[in-house]
Structure formats: structure tokens, C-alpha cells
Amino acid sequence: YELTQPPSVSVSPGQTVSVTCSGDKVGEKAVSWYQQKPGQSPLLVIYRDYRRPSGIPERFSGSNSGHTATLTIRGTQSTDEADYYCLVWHSAWVFGGGTRLTVL
Amino acid sequence: QVELQESGPGLVKTSETLSLTCNVSGVSFGKNFWNWIRQSPGKGLEWIGCVYSDGSTIYNPSLKSRVDISLDASKNHFSLKLNSVTAADSAKYYCARDSGEGGAVEALDFWGRGSLVTVSS
Known about the structure:
heterodimer; A: mainly beta; 6-stranded mixed sheet; 3-stranded antiparallel sheet; globular; B: mainly beta; 4-stranded antiparallel sheet; 0% helix; 53% strand
């Protein structure tokens, strides 16, 4: 099973950006999203498609339907610059290839 | 609070066995899955496998023939062994907890800081 993410996306501060994660019928699976800043461990920001762990800002949201899951960040801040990975379970955990978010 | 800490040799010789331990504090093993993930320099995340609190395991099919993950609740740790390593196994190795309970998988909510392992002859 494969998950495809765009290698990179960019956004201006304060704007909204979406990161996609495409996979066969991914809408039928529970997707989680991870933020990884340079030199740090991944941080869970969205689980079960749209749920936010405690401490994750409301500007992070998620959706999942059909063949695409989406992580959306509203009011993007410079501190959101990081790599983002999607993850699903398909008899094993499968990560997307990751998307580098640049805040210009 | 929940903390995971990886430990083990930073250098392993080619063809030998990589061994790492993840020490868990602030939570019991309960009914969760406990995972190993790795990341080669400049690359993405790769899931290696997991162990359930009852000792049962699930592995990445691409690594299954070389991997062994075990859990010792009495010592509050779980371990990874990867045999016949090559330079391609050089990576930062992370341990992480699955937030799902009762045998369900959900997401990886707590991660260690990672342990960098270099494979060299």
C-alpha cells in the first residue's frame, strides 16, 4: 500500500495551506499526521482523520474522503515550517513520503 | 509524564546485529502496541514493526526476515534486533507508543528522541 504526498508546499505567513496524502480508498482508513522539525522527533498533530491531541493549536485540521486525506493549517505561522507525514494502517503502518512546508 | 528513551550502540559493523532498547517511563505497557520506526539521513520515516503488551509482534514485510522485537514489562522496556545489517540500515531509530487500546491501532502519540546508528565495516 502506498501513500503519496507532494514533496514540498509553500505558504505565506497568515495564509491557509493544505497538504495532501493520496492512497487507494484512504477515506476508508483512519489517517494520522505528524509534524517533524529539524533535529526533532515527529509530533502527532492529527489522529483519526481530524482529531487534535491536546496542546495542538486549532489552526491544524484534517479531513479524509475518497482517495485523499488532507491536513490544513489556517493562519500559518513561521513555527509551522516543518516536514509533515501522513500515516495509515494497512496490515502494517505505512507512512507517506513526507511534505516539506516552507513558510515564505 | 510519558517518556520513551532509546539506547544502544551508535556504531554497528556490517553483517552484524543492531540492538536497541526503548525504556518507557510514566506509563505501563497496558494494552498498547509499542513501535520502532527509523529515518535515514535526509529521508522519510519507515515503520519497522511493533510489539503488543502480550508479546505478539507485527513487522514491516520488507524487513520481516531480519527483525525481532520483544518486550520486557518487568524492566519497562522493549527492544529491537535487526540482523545482517548493511550501510542501508544506518539511520536514526525511534521508538513510539500507539495510542490505541485493547489491541486496536490508532496513532503514534509518544515518541523517543531517537538513537543514531551507523553501520560500517
